[in-house]
Each structure stands twice: as C-alpha cells, then as structure tokens.
C-alpha cells in the first residue's frame, strides 16, 4: 500500500469514527478526543488506542464494539483491534472546538 492509499484509508477511518457516539453524549468519539492512536499497517491491519470520558462508563463495551465494527467495514482495513487505554487521562481540552461548542464549553 502506498502512502497516498494509506492516507485515503485513514481519512475514511476518521470519517467512520465520526459516526460513533457515546449514547450519553451528543458528540462523536473522534471529536470528543477519545481516539489517541490510529495505526494502519501495510497489510490493512488497524490498531486503535482509545479512551473513555470516565473509566466506569457503562457503555464502554458497546462503544468499543461499535468502533471495531465500523472501522473494519472501511475498504482497505482487513482487521481492527481496539485497545482501551486510560493514559493520558481524558479531559475536555482534548475535544475539538466543534465538540466544545456543541456541549456548551465555549
């Protein structure tokens, strides 16, 4: 896979991540700043490191499975692994400006 192809697939992955929502928050996981790493290998294997707004989030399993299923549906991704990490700890400064506006932080 060349660099241009890889970048196009990564853009599609980000677009797909923007369709995943925490059921309690009206902002997608990407704009919330919950995605820490997107690592796409040459063979199409994808690893995502993500966190949650709170370690005891009741929707954690649902959100992680939604992320995995959706990114695996992206053409060029052969398999996806989603790792839940809590370092660095998430805070509202990790959100995009759009997310902060949506949630009333601006």
UniProtKB/TrEMBL annotation:
Q: Which domain of life is it from?
A: Bacteria
| Pfam families the record matches | FeS_assembly_P
Tell me which residues make up the MIP18 family-like domain: 10-82
- InterPro entries per the UniProt record, alphabetical: Fe-S_Maturation_MIP18, FSCA_dom_sf, MIP18-like
Protein name listed in UniProt: MIP18 family-like domain-containing protein
Q: Which organism is it from?
A: Phocaeicola plebeius CAG:211
